[in-house]
Amino acid sequence: AVYTCFEDVPQSSHFDFVIVGGGTAGNTLANRLTENPHFHVLVLEAGPSNEGVIDSMVPFFANRASPFTPWDWNYTAIPQETLNNRSIVYPRGHILGGSSSVILGSDYMVYTRGSSEDWDRYASISQNQGWSWHSIQEYIRKNEKWTEPADHHNTTGQFNPKLHTTRGVNSVSLPGFLWKNTDERIIQTTKDFADEFPFNEDMNSGSHLGIGWTQNTIDGSTGRRSSSATSYLGPHFISRKNLNVLVNARVTRLVKTGTSRDGKPEILGVEFLDANNPEKKFTVQAHKELILSAGSINTPQILQLSGIGDRHLLSSMKIPVLVDNPSVGRNLSDHPLVPNIWRANSNNTFQAAQRNATLASEQFQEWNTTGKGPLTNEFTNQLGWLRIPASVTDFWGNIEDPAAGNNTAHYEFMLCNGVIPGASALPSSDNYFSIFTAVVSPASRGSVALNTSSPLDAPLIDPGFYKEEIDLKVMKFAIRSAQRFLTGPAWSEYIISAVDGQGNTTMTGDDSQLEQYIKENTATVFHPTGTSSMSPVNAGWGVVDPDLKVKGVVGVRIVDLSVLPIVPAAHPQAAAYVVGERAGDLIMKSMGSN
Ligand SMILES: Cc1cc2nc3c(=O)[nH]c(=O)nc-3n(C[C@H](O)[C@H](O)[C@H](O)COP(=O)(O)OP(=O)(O)OC[C@H]3O[C@@H](n4cnc5c(N)ncnc54)[C@H](O)[C@@H]3O)c2cc1C
């Protein structure tokens, strides 16, 4: 069951596994471990329950769940020199379901598995074939539950049914509401410009290049978002006697409980604050393993607060050093994103309901009573995964191509029928079309580090955008590519003119004007990864072994997106689910339980 008060949690003295963070990967693991009725699991989640949070249920209200709400950690990144010293908002889910429950403005419920080369690179970096594309297919099948889109439209040619299954846990669907005015133009342009913008029937095959229909974590039968909380903690799972979830429980540090025979600290305890009783610190101990699933920002923060990290940083905060590991919090990779907006000759865009309260209310009623209509969708019906063509000579100079291989994208298009509410300021009049561009195989790296020794203070988050100039070059190419896309004949009567960005910058100017446009308008796609990276056993770097056990200690694994060494060229919630599923498998096997 889900509890709001620690005293109400039964068997509070005996838990085999304690999972810190009821997010995407954490809830997946909690579900799999409690398939064994003898394993008692406690999940400690800092945020509130997702029950009744309408903004987290309605796909099109996704942007309202974050930022600056109780369901968000409300982080801001440190000022980025490369973005004219701007500090950008850096949302993270603070709610049961974690970041799979909050989806803001420019990012959605997009379900993308990445390219096969991304996963094969993880296997190669970690020297463990269990992370290869071939090996993770079983976890994709355990995760995905394909559902018909909410409007039951004919989906022939919009996905490849052979790649999908209805047997998993987490609902996935195609768009449940079609925007004919833009859907048809986008697909037509993949025919008109087939060389540069080829159509891809299903970008989740492992070969993701091209433009195709977006798959989302939405349950088409209800028109509602599917998160790790609604799926893996759904009614027939959360009723298990051995599955206990405590919300409003913020873990402040891990606690050493002993020393192993080979002299390593054994860590099975956690200290946490219960929002109902903020004066008191609680501790709880796992009997078998402690799992950190607090996500790419909070997992390294908790490690550092517990004395696991770079000794120079820890000493400067007067935190006793348990394990000196400079890799903790380093190696962050994320996707920078720029919204590109054009005035459109249409009155059938997102803006119609934004400016008409009666229409907005009708759309909500339709969603609420029938599970149909425009609110069953997120914001993009089509995505593109694209590369700098080999014909562009001298693009990379001496720099090694940062993509995982020749079939992996350098940049992405998210194509939207208007200005997305919350993602950009809504102009007071007219209608729009937008293409969000993102650098999806970045060379730059950032970091997460404690700002103070207080667990209640936000860490310093540095996404490191454009630290490597090549990423800026890729973004320039991506925006010009978006402009080329709209020169297709399908758009000639539709696109009126490009709209200026923040700070009166324009995307249509020369190289240096375009650079200013990028610097003033870059945000994050919210995909930080790699801050507790896995590395080969006995490597001189990295935070966890390929079985996700924390190096240098006994008792703790990390099970969230922070363990993947590089952000995939994908929206990474599917990857977080894969990490949760594989961790379940690894732990069950190590306990002799399957
Ligand atoms: C606004 C937004 C939109 C996104 N949109 C998409 C998308 O459309 N498609 C996609 O594929 N990906 C998307 N992502 C990225 C994706 O959601 C994340 O990469 C993924 O969910 C990460 O999973 P995780 O398990 O690593 O962490 P999370 O799901 O973030 O889970 C971490 C959990 O730990 C909890 N926690 C943290 N610290 C503590 C603590 N001290 N004590 C107790 N609990 C703690 C958090 O509250 C949270 O519930 C989005 C992310 C955000 C923030």
Automatic annotation (TrEMBL):
It comes from the Eukaryota. One of its GO terms (molecular function) is pyranose dehydrogenase (acceptor) activity. One of its GO terms (cellular component) is extracellular region. It is found in: Secreted. The active site is at H527 (proton donor), H571 (proton acceptor). It is an enzyme of class 1 (oxidoreductase). The keyword Cell cycle does not apply. Its main location: secreted. SUPFAM superfamilies: FAD-linked reductases, C-terminal domain, FAD/NAD(P)-binding domain. FAD binds at V251, P572, Q573. It catalyses: pyranose + acceptor = pyranos-2,3-diulose + reduced acceptor; pyranose + acceptor = pyranos-3-ulose + reduced acceptor; a pyranoside + acceptor = a pyranosid-3-ulose + reduced acceptor; a pyranoside + acceptor = a pyranosid-3,4-diulose + reduced acceptor. This is pyranose dehydrogenase (acceptor). It comes from Leucocoprinus birnbaumii.
